[in-house]
Amino acid sequence: MRQTQILMGMPITVEVVDGAAASLIDAAFAYFAAVERRFSVFRPDSEISGLNDGRIAEDAVSAEMCEVLRIAERTRRDTCGYFDIRRPDGRLDPSGIVKGWAIRNAARMIASGGAGNFLVDAGGDIQSQGRAANGEEWCIGIRNPFNEAETIKAIRPRGRGVATSGTYVRGQHIYDPHRPARPIEDIVSLTVIGADVLEADRLATAAFAMGQDGIYFIEEFAGLEGYVIGADGVATQTSGFKDYVVT
User: Fold this and answer.
1) Which of the residues 1, 66, 143, 177 has the least number of beta carbons within 10 Å of its own beta carbon?
2) Considering only 61-65, 155-159, 169-173, which range has the smallest mean pLDDT?
3) Which pLDDT belongs to residue 169?
4) CB 122 within 8 A of CB 103
């Protein structure tokens, strides 16, 4: 059973092959809706807006907010500041953490509900487990950023998380915190495979902010593999990425 809804400003697809599919899918979408209510910087009634506006004190935030802020700070340290949820105007925007965190949590919820074969895809960041309805391992396509109708690579993540950062859909929405006024123009797409989708997503965002150097960061970071496409159309992959490519 497969269903797609627009939540958190993007299409989210949940597919559950076994178990109580309908109820698990409903629970997953209810969870994403709750995450949006808490973390959306576009909602004046969200918890993150209350924190930014000073209506909620830092020591009075929810456990979920505390967890996301802790992960954000760890990511800032892991990436030498190339990932920072504090914007130039001083406000916090944890969306670079929240998406992967929410996908991971929804996937755990589905698994704990008894499903062994499922996929959760939010805006192209994916956590899968087991096999698809056709009995084969889940296969994930990487789009050609210069022609979105074309798939240039197909990978089998085998239970690992996949996240892609890029400018070819949303434009220049990722910036280098060290040089926030300078657009990232040397790369257009970076796909990362990590232990889970949270790990892949948080580090894909930071690596993209590094520009051409990001793929070397992914190569050296334990447990990650990556595939970057430059503005010139040339692709570079980490040494272990080939192990996931469908031949």
Assistant:
1) 66
2) 169-173
3) 54
4) yes
Cβ(119)–Cβ(138) under 8 Å?
A: yes
The number of helices, as runs of H, and strands, as runs of E, in the chain is: 6, 10
For the residues 14-24, what does the mean pLDDT come to? 96
| CATH classification of the domain holding 238 | 3.10.520.10
> Does residue 60 have a pLDDT over 60?
yes
Q: Which domain holds residue 238?
A: 2-244
Interatomic CA distance for residues 244 and 247, integer angstroms: 9
Q: In Å, what is the CA distance from 157 to each residue of 125, 217, 241, 244? A: 12, 20, 10, 6
Please name every residue paired with 163 in a beta bridge, in sequence order, or none if there are none. Answer: 192
Q: Report H helices in the chain.
A: 21-39, 47-53, 63-78, 95-112, 197-209, 214-220
CA–CA gap between residue 58 and residue 73 (Å, rounded): 14
Among the listed residues 139, 131, 110, 96, the one whose alpha carbon sits nearest the alpha carbon of residue 246: 139
Kindly give, in sequence order, each residue whose CB lies less than 8 Å from that of residue 77, ignoring residues fewer than 6 positions away.
Answer: none
Contact 190, 207 (CB under 8 A): yes
- The helix (H) or strand (E) run that includes residue 6 is strand 2-7
Model confidence band, residue 78 (pLDDT cutoffs 50, 70, 90): very high
Nearest to 187 by CA among 230, 238, 236: 230
* C-alpha to C-alpha distance for 210 and 197, rounded to whole angstroms: 20
CA distance 190 to 216: 12
Count the domains in the chain: 1
Distance CA 171, CA 116 (A): 36
